[in-house]
Amino acid sequence: MRKLVYYAAATIDGFIAGADGSDPTGTIFEIDGDHMPVMIAEYPETVPTHMRAPLGIDAPNNHFDTLLMGRASYQPGLDLGVTSPYAHLRQYVFSTTITESPDPDVEIVAGDPIEKVRELKREDGKDIWLCGGGKLAAAVEPEIDELRIKLNPVAIGTGIPLFDGEFGPQRFRLAASRAFESGMIFLTYVRR
């Protein structure tokens, strides 16, 4: 069975984006540093399709073949005219406000996110990437098998939390960690 993996960047105070939900790349999270070539080489599929050619990325998907995101995570790309941000993956956007997909490569899911995750896990293939946001992560928390967190050495005080919703304490075990000169620490946790 495939795993649901929450792979995301976070601040040391637990936020995945600023309070306004703006795209944090380059403003909150460092995009320069010794961690970037390593993360791109290991997770090339997490680079948006429109950025792959300019960055010289022509690599197969190492870990994921399916992507899940909430509407707020999808919106910044839409605002730039990018309707299929990860065309090299199967893309599912969970939303009750978008009724029709603006792109045939993106499926809008208005129903129960837990049921959709369970359906996807039963399929053959690579793991499923939960890329954001905090509300969707909280909604599917019981189905998250691993957390792969790029912990960045910055605190922002307020913003969109890694999990934006209520649930009881959940235990994870640290399976791996790697520190970089840039200060970013890549942490892998698995559900106990």
Automatic annotation (TrEMBL):
<dbReference type="InterPro" id="IPR002734">
    <property type="entry name" value="RibDG_C"/>
</dbReference>
<dbReference type="GO" id="GO:0009231">
    <property type="term" value="P:riboflavin biosynthetic process"/>
</dbReference>
<protein>
    <submittedName>
        <fullName>Dihydrofolate reductase family protein</fullName>
    </submittedName>
</protein>
<dbReference type="Pfam" id="PF01872">
    <property type="entry name" value="RibD_C"/>
</dbReference>
<dbReference type="InterPro" id="IPR050765">
    <property type="entry name" value="Riboflavin_Biosynth_HTPR"/>
</dbReference>
<dbReference type="GO" id="GO:0008703">
    <property type="term" value="F:5-amino-6-(5-phosphoribosylamino)uracil reductase activity"/>
</dbReference>
<dbReference type="InterPro" id="IPR024072">
    <property type="entry name" value="DHFR-like_dom_sf"/>
</dbReference>
<feature type="domain" description="Bacterial bifunctional deaminase-reductase C-terminal">
    <location>
        <begin position="3"/>
        <end position="185"/>
    </location>
</feature>
